[in-house]
Amino acid sequence: MKFFIDGADIAEIKALCAMGVVDGVTTNPSIIAKTGRNFQEVIGEICDITSGPVSAEVAATDAKTMILEGKHLAKIAKNVCIKVPLTEEGLKACYALRQEDIMVNVTLCFSSVQALMAAKAGATFISPFIGRLDDIGHDGMQLIEDICQIYSNYPDLTTEVLAASVRHPLHVKQVAEIGAHVVTAPANVIRGLINHPLTDKGLDIFLKDWAKTGQSIL
Ligand code: G3P
Prior knowledge:
Elements: E1 2-6, H1 10-17, E2 24-26, H2 29-35, H3 39-49, E3 54-57, H4 63-74, E4 80-85, H5 88-99, E5 103-109, H6 112-120, E6 125-128, H7 130-134, H8 140-152, E7 160-163, H9 169-178, E8 182-185, H10 187-194, H11 197-213
Helix pairs in contact: 1-3, 4-5, 6-8, 8-9
The structure holds SN-glycerol-3-phosphate (G3P).
The site of SN-glycerol-3-phosphate has 10 residues, from helix 7.
């Protein structure tokens, strides 16, 4: 499974990339607004840190302007992936941008039939939002399962399922068990996959016992 960071904090991205666990980055207008920085500068810096897909979302809602914005953003770096919302206009833009061999991540997906239409439009990635469905009492993980099942029926569909709106490590575990291609998660969730209190406790004991030997390795 590929791991994308859902965020735009340069220091956090650098720190996780240093572990070799990052395959790309996703942003959205809310994430960019939180940085307080210039959108295109931030995307450029992220593209310098990782060679994986970096999702940059258009701001327009009409296909013609989405296409113009997408082509403009794609010039920032070769690994920029254009994010468009899952609307009729968004799918028109998706189809057109894919004709130009520009990566497209179709976002704000909340149903399996939406995901099927995004795949028909040639999306590189589809972003079903798990957490936002959970937030209103629906089963976000069931959506991931349904999409993966539908896509598996048609091997000619090349769209990768990019599980998004991930709230905690259990979401990542469940997405991996289902077999989604990609998960995008905030840096703190990715760190939550690595850190464990028993590991810390065991290491503390090892270090204390090692100190008793009075030896050093170097
Ligand atoms: O960036 C897309 C998605 O992961 C955002 O999810 O619900 O945490 O805003 P959310």
